[in-house]
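Each field is listed here:
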Amino acid sequence: MGGVNPYIEKVKVAKPTQKFQITFIMESTNETKTFEVDPAKIPYGETGLEGSILDIACGAGVDLDHACGGVCACATCHVIVKEGLESCSKATEDEEDMLDTAPGLQMESRLGCQCVPNGTMNLTVIVPNWNRNLVKEGH
């Protein structure tokens, strides 16, 4: 799906200029996947902001639910950035409003579709247990 949400302010972010790694931890299975992000390959897909955690997850083959197509209109791509959050774009008021609807909100919570790392450090991202597309993954 993909596209742009015309009801929110357009976000300007600094894209990475160097390679870095994101380690995804799937809370439901305790499985981890480390992916090297190559700025030359961004965008990896058509969901979320270019270079966002959601975009990178799609490139890494990590199933991160995103019911709205990555346009900041839901909170299904809620993730917890445990390491490297300071290298990510600041949350906008629109993102914070959507995050208020997410279960399990923490200080390090972000919407995967809006959080764009600048590549200055590696990230560790937790995909919460409830973030599973049951149509695809089963019980």
